[in-house]
Amino acid sequence: MNLKNIASSIGLALAVFVLPSCQDQLYNDIAFVDKASAPSKLSALFEITQDNTGMVTITPNGEGVAYFSVASGLAGATPATVNPGGKVQWKYPEGNHSVVVKGFNVGGKSTETTLPLTVSFKAPENVEMTATIDPTNPKKVNVTAKGLYETNFKAYFGETANEVPVSFNEGQTISYTYNSVGTFTIKVVALSGGAASTTVTQNVSIVSPVMLPLDFETAGQEYTFSNFDGGSVSIINNPQKSGINTSSKVARMIKYAGQPWGGSLITLGSAMDFSVNKFFAMKVFSPRVGAKVLLKVENATDGSISYEKEVVTTKANAWEDLSFDFSAINTTKSYHKVVLIFDLGTMGDGSANYTFLFDDIRLYKPVTAESLTVPLTFESSSLKYDFVNFDGGNTSVVDNPQKTGINTSLKVGKMVKSAGQTWGGSFITLESPIDFSAKKTFKMKVYSPRVGAKVLLKVENLTNGAVSFEKEVTTTKANAWEELTFDYSGINASQSYQKIVLIFDLGTMGDGSANFTYWFDDIILQ
Length: 526
Description:
The chain has 526 residues and is mainly β. 5% of the residues lie in helices and 44% in strands.
């Protein structure tokens, strides 16, 4: 919960200032100095003035560094001591030089690296730039460059006006994450010590990240499959609009001669979330009964991190919904790739007998008698409504003490806001993400002790509190039930939200009295 983390951070900061006044002996324990790791990841940024003077600005960098010693590589020059974030300058003659960067930690341990520096007054030549999409994020691009006679590079990523370029050296990789989709021109300018520079460009296409579920219906979305060893997937108009699948678009796999394991894979824009939903479902149209269908997931960069299940078709020339049990998957790992292989172990021949249709690949949780999800009515005798309280909020499920008006139900939620923080509240975690694809309005019944009490309803991602959306409304009645409406039309429905957070009177400290006691019920999405 973000607000709780903020509170914890503030408390820790206060502790840093308060504790020394009553525990001076802590200053005598400096064992941590000897245990500190030696500096690592040493590097330096070179920037040269383009005036034929050879003036180079060197900015050292590294992890675990208390200070740097930078040796210019010039005969007779004294190494400079540079604090983290600091810079040093020297004038260099044309030629190749070796700059030695040495980093020292608080205990005096050191690490050093030698970096090549080229100083030339000629315009850079043979400049090459490589820009690739990051395998774990389709909106992130990684850039490297090389050339002759260059000292450093400046990169422009083409998304914003008046862009401040990013400086980097040959051998470094710099990254940029785009906020929008489209085709962008990346420009890299190679600089030497002379007035002339050399510019190279490369276009990159940034597309919306492909996410589960895969229904192949999103206009403008590129569902890019990578085929291997005889497998060939394409997105086509649904030629079999019947039964359980009348959607417009489907995927088609034709298995040609190649290898018995021929198939195809698609890389998603983010890791799949197996925290709650651990079963895959996929609609398949097979030319025959008994065809084997393997569904596998893999890590974006390490294929050995994977999990797979294989099932067989039970229908011929008809759509069926196949289920793949991934309940034993290691949820501590990340999986970005979905791999499909039909008839593993058998060589395809490209015929109709090796042509399959598939659609609607999604994660789900098998339906049980009850599950903790919206609507939340608090009436179940078997479900546990486990609210997590933070910073003065305290929620419990109680017998309804106010069976009047629009709410005569047996059970309700009760929040008492006591002294703690002005953002004190509670949250509850659902068993599956909330589906905002069609419904985007929350309703909640509230019984407030006064008119004008602020009520904040927020949803968050299960593991990343930064992925969230919230709305705040105010009560219009005192000591009576009313139904409040929270407009969620602006929510990003492609994200996953499993936490519901409630904060009453955000910005005001509670005192645990009747004036800070609220009841709520029937949290529904419509």
